[in-house]
Write a sequence for this structure.
């Protein structure tokens, strides 16, 4: 690669990150001064009161270091700005993960536009609008999506083994379901490339090691049952397209791509193998998320991201073969993608209802001036509250 090509590549990467940043903050703008009830404000007071070892404090059963690590940054700010700081930190993490996906896909495609679109999927995925955008407790789901995509690329594993291992370690210590994304890695252990096999085995050790740690902490029976006591697994009347698509689309689309991938003209195309890998991970994630968590929008984020990126790679190979209908296929895919993105672009009611955090802190400050030794309740949206000590509210 010439110096000019390197400069262009670097500037493209920077520009892509800038676009991702604009879009994620545009999505989160109405919720940027609010804190969602799930996971709520729990991590931040812990970060304020305790030392850095609180990062390894389970919540509620398993380790969740991604959210707790982010809370350590938020805790550096005055309480009045904790919601804004929390949203900002989380949004920038999403941007970093989008760029991570960009880098992984670029190793496979060597195409900057295609790589940018792949990272963009995470930033604009429609099902993130309900409770995931800007939510400090939901970082683990985009983390899982990013790691799953990296595991599907043998070239990315060869190029960035240490980076992928670090992100996988954080993801594995943030939730116990990462192991289902290792299906591509298990396949790659049969590679004739000895160096690749060594790197793949190292990644498997990271994932299964963190899984064992999580299971030992949670307990085997709890790990198997998941959120069985609180999860919703039955369809309800008037569910709407948002929920139906989140439950069924990733799996059905992955099965469709697997079927079409076996057809002769598509079988040996450039992205055939990575599509198989992505489909396997999509189905595994979607099924396990439903079993453990039921019907919940946060569990849609990772499978939906993988499914959309699979669709982008399929479209590229498809139009390369069937050039006569290239424009029709691209236009159809664009409409199919842009409608849900626009419709579910802004943060939803779960993140935008209720009072702003700054107004709650102002209210609590008035109370704490007269009751400095008390605890005070700060409301979070859309319901619920967080109990905070008055000394934390009034300190400068």
């Amino acid at each position: 690669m010439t110096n000019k090509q390197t400069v262009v590549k670097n500037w493209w990467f920077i520009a892509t990150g800038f676009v991702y940043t604009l879009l994620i903050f545009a999505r989160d703008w109405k919720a940027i001064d609010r804190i969602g009830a799930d996971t709520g404000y729990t991590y931040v007071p812990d970060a304020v009161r305790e030392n850095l070892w609180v990062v390894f404090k389970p919540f509620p059963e398993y380790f969740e270091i991604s959210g707790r690590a982010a809370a350590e940054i938020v805790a550096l700010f005055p309480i009045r700005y904790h919601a804004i700081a929390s949203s900002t930190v989380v949004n920038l993490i999403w941007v970093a993960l989008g760029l991570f996906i960009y880098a992984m896909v670029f190793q496979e495609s060597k195409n900057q536009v295609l790589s940018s679109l792949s990272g963009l999927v995470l930033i604009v995925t429609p099902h993130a609008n309900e409770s995931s955008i800007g939510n400090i407790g939901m970082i683990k789901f985009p983390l899982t999506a990013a790691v799953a995509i990296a595991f599907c690329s043998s070239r990315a594993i060869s190029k960035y083994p240490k980076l992928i291992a670090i992100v996988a370690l954080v993801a594995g210590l943030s939730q116990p379901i990462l192991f289902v994304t290792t299906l591509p890695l298990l396949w790659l252990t049969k590679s004739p490339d000895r160096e690749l096999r060594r790197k793949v085995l190292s990644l498997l050790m990271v994932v299964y090691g963190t899984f064992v740690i999580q299971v030992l902490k949670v307990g085997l029976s709890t790990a198997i049952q998941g959120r069985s006591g609180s999860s919703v697994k039955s369809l309800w009347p008037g569910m709407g397209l948002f929920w139906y698509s989140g439950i069924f689309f990733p799996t059905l689309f992955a099965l469709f791509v697997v079927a079409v991938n076996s057809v002769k003209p598509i079988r040996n195309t450039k992205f055939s193998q990575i599509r198989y890998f992505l489909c396997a991970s999509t189905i595994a994630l979607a099924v396990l998320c439903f079993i453990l968590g039921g019907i919940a929008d946060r569990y849609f984020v990772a499978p939906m991201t993988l499914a959309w990126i699979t669709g982008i790679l399929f479209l590229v190979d498809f139009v390369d073969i069937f050039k006569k209908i290239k424009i029709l296929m691209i236009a159809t895919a664009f409409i199919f993608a842009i409608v849900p993105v626009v419709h579910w672009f802004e943060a939803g009611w779960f993140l935008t209802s209720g009072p702003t955090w700054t107004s709650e802190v102002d209210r609590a400050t008035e109370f704490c001036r007269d009751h400095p030794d008390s605890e005070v309740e700060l409301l979070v949206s859309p319901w619920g509250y967080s109990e905070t000590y008055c000394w934390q509210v009034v300190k400068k």
User: Anything to note?
Assistant: The chain has a mean pLDDT of 91. The first strand starts at residue 375 and ends at 379.
